[in-house]
Design goal:
The protein is α+β, with helices and mostly antiparallel strands. It folds into four domains: about 1-205, Histidine kinase-like ATPase, C-terminal domain (Heat Shock Protein 90); about 240-370, 2-Layer Sandwich (Ribosomal Protein S5, domain 2), CATH 3.30.230; about 405-495, Rossmann fold, CATH 3.40.50; about 505-625, Heat shock protein 90, C-terminal domain (Four Helix Bundle (Hemerythrin (Met), subunit A), Up-down Bundle). The strands form five sheets. A nine-stranded mixed β-sheet has the order 1-6-5-4-7-3-2-8-9, covered by helices on one side. A five-stranded mixed β-sheet has the order 10-11-14-12-13, sandwiched between helices. Strands 18-17-19 form a three-stranded parallel β-sheet. Helix 10 packs antiparallel against helix 11 (about 395-400). It is elongated and about 115 Å long. It holds the Pfam family HSP90.
Amino acid sequence: MQEKGTISIHTENIFPIIKKFLYSDNEIFLRELVSNAVDATQKIKRLSSLGQYEGELGDLRVEIAFNEEAKTITISDRGIGMTAEEIKKYINQIAFSGATEFVEKFKEAKDANELIGKFGLGFYSAFMVADKVEIQTLSYQDGAEPARWICDGSTEFEITEGSRTERGTDITLYINSESEEFLSKYKLQEILDKYCRFLPVPIKFGTKTESEPDGEDEEGKPKYKSVETDNIINNTSPIWTKAPADLKDEDYLAFYKELYPFSEDPLFWIHLNVDYPFNLTGVLYFPKVKNDFDLQRNKIKLFSRQVFITDEVKDIVPEFLMLLHGVIDSPDIPLNVSRSFLQADSNVKKINSYITKKVADKLSELFKKDRKEFEQKWQDIGIFVKYGMISEDKFYEKAKDYALLVNTKNELYTFNEYQEKVKSLQTDKNDQVVYLYSNDAAKQDAFIQSANNKGYDVLLLNSPIDSHFISHLEQKLEKTSLKRVDSDVVDKLIVKEDNPAHVLTEEQTTQVKGLFEKAISKPNMKVEVESLSPDELPVHVTMDEFMRRMKDMAQMGGGMGFYGSLPDNYKVAVNGNHPLISRIVNTEDEEEKSKLAKQAFDLALLSQGMLTGSDLTEFVKRSVQMI
């Protein structure tokens, strides 16, 4: 048997295209070839179970070997093999796959779809790293003869009689000079660990040294000896391929450690398992989230029939759930020929919606089942929920029943509960319910206490996403506004009635305004004399709520960069009804007036944590003098 011919393609330039453009990363040649070997192995197992193959299956593992001197990498299997005619059909006709024919022939098999091979373009990824590729194969069919196929990267091939004596296929790559980095045990192990660690057929790559018991020494202590064993690189039955009923919490936690060895235990997890209208399995874990979003992302791994594809899953998983960790496996996710990038189509959108619903339902279940435990986890899961509520209306509608608001006393309320708690006391004269909030309870303590003294409640909204969440709540909650507790004096935050009258005359008001402007002498500080309760502080330094919010949002991104570049401007509210201000007005010594005004202003800065450096030193000296 000998034959020469030309590969059936429509351009002489197919190989440069394959090498440069078809695949995003040349290391995936090993993923493609090992996947093909696994597919061939699963097919022979299936044929045997259907009675279509009656021979001995034998050892069905796939083996990878390399020879640094000969500059070869070989992938071997004991799968269905190929005849010379099948080589011409599946290998020489690029982009033709035997999958359709195979499934048609054995369509009575319930899981035939799982056995679809990826012959064709996947095989040709070998030429990304090889000058020459050789196939030695022997088909499982009775009377089949071994066949050898060889191609040097041009469009010419040669088929001759092969030398293989056992069913299966060897594919040998003669590595080109630019790709010799792959002739390394470390490099190949790294690629196999990345792409093949959960394939359903055992993958052997050389041997490894392990310790095993070897009796006892003279003192009766156990001895160990080193032995060489097969290096099986994969777990053939990962957790997501099993039924949830067959798993315990320890199994989920052990798998999480397998995926992320140095991470803290997750809070909880969701087992995905659906077969209609698409196939999807997986496990998603809720990790303990740190404030650095970017470090948390891209921790979900996408698989297709247990072959790793990518950890770029933004089309499959809703944006707000990118902070989750875990695994998704679906044969229905469309991929381009390199299997490296997702294409948005109806299946992807359905999967996206399904995952959103599963997460929303799981959170609801946890809340209803054990609210106390849910509250204990809120600090960690709140960021997911808030992100989701901002991102997707459908999620907001589900989550508003169990999303929690936390106040500065560490009390937790649902949205409805909180509305009932504050509406009677925190409704202003325009019938708007005002939610007061702090993003730094320690720094804003004076303002919080001032609000508490009036019976008002103050929420704590201090997560990285809360600047966006606050604006979203105002859009969603009827006749409700949110104001940061230090954005104005409390009487101005929740205006109940017209302000009390000044005890100062108009002339005295003008005098006080000018005195403070001179004492402060800062262009970014706008002085106003307010008519406030005598119980309030003599001076407040605040930033307008709108400007504060825009600046907070600018720090988190979201199109508010213009505000982030603006200088900080503050309002200095002088309480014209405070006894200290009357004392200043009635002091005849101009230097003493200025000193008292400066002291009152610095106290206001100090209460906000805004008094620093030489200004703080000067304040301390002045305070000592005034005692």
